[in-house]
């Protein structure tokens, strides 16, 4: 079988870790390696792009690509050390792994166009742009994001309303610092995004978990049990992780709560672009007439995680607070990546890519669900939610999802257990399974079959 980009990536990463490839060593050109492996150039381009993004390789333009000279040399343990990583080795699963939630389809990303934009932006950097970047972000990127949000998400905003951050953590940290006073508390969905929970535990003195049902956050619970909450964090378009959508009555109820309490709402629209059986839903922010919603997003799901760029729409009444705190906390994001993103968005390539990914992910989701039930009949229930980049597979008769996730990790299936996403004792149990990089039904079957015997043994013992 011809190697895919993941296998090529893993081989190079392992060779660098083992010292087979040393800092400064040149690697074959994309064209030559594609010919040698008899694969498409795009496959090699995808593997090289990930390696460059993670810092293993460095592209030197006409001089070719080499192992990053800044890496620490690794001594060879033996002259006959293996030259290629065994698929599923421990180093491979640390970085990528299969079925990992939240990773976009890297094999179908327009790498050639992206690399062209990277080269153009690098050549166009002027000396005056090599000092401190603008605190709120590169103006053309802010304008491109404002245009995208207005057209695609129904968020009426201008470039002056956009603040460029370092990603999800940067969005959340800046918002809390700009809007919360000492001792003020935060409401969040139960279950909720585990990285957000961990960050909030270090920043907010009091957290109020608000249960989620089939209509999203139970706003009535928020009103009754969290009267002092100053800010609520929600994922209304596609709840993380359960996938439900906040109903329109509850959206209206939540907005009314914020206005009455003089509180704020953070709308985390982490994958709102990906809906498959109906049109993309308008954002909560599009219904906000009192400017109480802070809309946040990143490019980690729509482009790639290594971009490390996020954005938020500042409420105009608190714009100065965001700008002041932003200057203190981060001082602006690196300019080069912002220029590349601005070109990708303003040139129309971003919209074309999203349209392609919606169709691709819809097919791959169906593939994942079919394969899951074929390998594990009766073990999981998979209610079909409209959209997203992962499937929640609820265990039908067991509660050992954390142990099960560990078993799957041993087979390099980087799924997440559902129960740790809850803060309260009343939990549901299952696995969160990413499907965006599944290329075929046969591949899905092969991957899931890896863990079949150990899964059945664990579930039999759990009973």
Automatic annotation (TrEMBL):
**Which domain of life does the UniProt lineage start with?**
Bacteria
A molecular function (GO) held by this record is: DNA binding
HTH gntR-type domain location is 2-70
Q: Which UniProt keywords apply?
A: Aminotransferase, DNA-binding, Pyridoxal phosphate, Transcription, Transcription regulation, Transferase
Q: Which CDD domains match?
A: AAT_like, WHTH_GntR
Does this entry carry the keyword Transferase? yes
Tell me the protein family, please: In the C-terminal section; belongs to the class-I pyridoxal-phosphate-dependent aminotransferase family.
Q: What is this protein called?
A: PLP-dependent aminotransferase family protein
Origin species = Cronobacter dublinensis
Q: What is the lineage of its organism?
A: Bacteria, Pseudomonadati, Pseudomonadota, Gammaproteobacteria, Enterobacterales
């Amino acid at each position: 079988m011809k190697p895919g980009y993941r296998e090529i990536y893993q081989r190079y990463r392992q060779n660098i870790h083992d010292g087979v490839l040393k800092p400064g060593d040149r690697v074959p050109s994309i064209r030559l390696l594609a010919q040698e492996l008899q694969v498409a150039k795009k496959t090699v381009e995808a593997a090289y792009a990930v390696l460059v993004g993670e810092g293993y390789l460095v592209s030197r333009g006409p001089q070719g690509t080499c192992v990053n000279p800044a890496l620490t040399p690794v001594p060879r343990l033996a002259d006959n050390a293996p030259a290629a990583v065994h698929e599923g080795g421990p180093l491979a699963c640390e970085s990528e792994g299969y079925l990992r939630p939240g990773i976009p389809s890297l094999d179908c990303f327009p790498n050639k166009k992206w690399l062209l934009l990277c080269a153009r932006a690098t050549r166009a950097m002027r000396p005056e742009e090599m000092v401190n970047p603008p605190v709120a972000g590169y103006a053309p990127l802010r304008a491109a994001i404002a245009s995208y949000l207005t057209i695609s998400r129904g968020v009426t905003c201008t470039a002056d309303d956009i603040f460029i951050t370092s990603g999800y953590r940067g969005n959340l940290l800046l918002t809390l610092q700009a809007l919360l006073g000492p001792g003020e508390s935060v409401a969040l969905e139960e279950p909720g995004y585990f990285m957000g929970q961990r960050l909030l535990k270090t920043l907010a003195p009091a957290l109020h978990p608000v249960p989620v049902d089939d209509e999203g956050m139970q706003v009535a619970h928020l009103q009754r049990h969290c009267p002092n909450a100053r800010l609520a964090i929600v994922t209304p378009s596609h709840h993380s992780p359960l996938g439900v959508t906040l109903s329109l009555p509850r959206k209206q109820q939540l907005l009314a709560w914020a206005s009455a309490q003089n509180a704020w709402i953070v709308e985390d629209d982490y994958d709102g672009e990906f809906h498959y059986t109906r049109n993309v839903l308008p954002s909560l922010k599009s219904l906000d007439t009192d400017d109480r919603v802070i809309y946040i997003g990143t490019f980690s799901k729509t482009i790639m995680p290594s971009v490390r760029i996020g954005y938020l729409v500042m409420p105009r009444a608190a714009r100065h607070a965001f700008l002041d705190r932003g200057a203190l906390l981060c001082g602006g994001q690196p300019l080069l990546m912002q220029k590349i993103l601005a070109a990708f968005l303003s040139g129309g390539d971003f919209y074309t890519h999203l349209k392609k990914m919606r169709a691709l992910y819809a097919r791959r989701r169906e593939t994942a669900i079919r394969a899951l039930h074929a390998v594990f009949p009766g073990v999981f229930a998979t209610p079909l939610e409209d959209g997203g980049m992962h499937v929640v597979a609820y265990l039908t008769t067991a509660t050992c999802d954390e142990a099960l996730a560990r078993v799957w990790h041993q087979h390099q299936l980087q799924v997440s257990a559902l129960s740790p996403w809850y803060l309260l004792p009343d939990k549901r149990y299952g696995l969160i399974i990413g499907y965006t990089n599944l290329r075929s039904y046969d591949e899905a079957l092969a991957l899931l079959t890896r863990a079949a015997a150990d899964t059945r043994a664990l579930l039999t013992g759990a009973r």
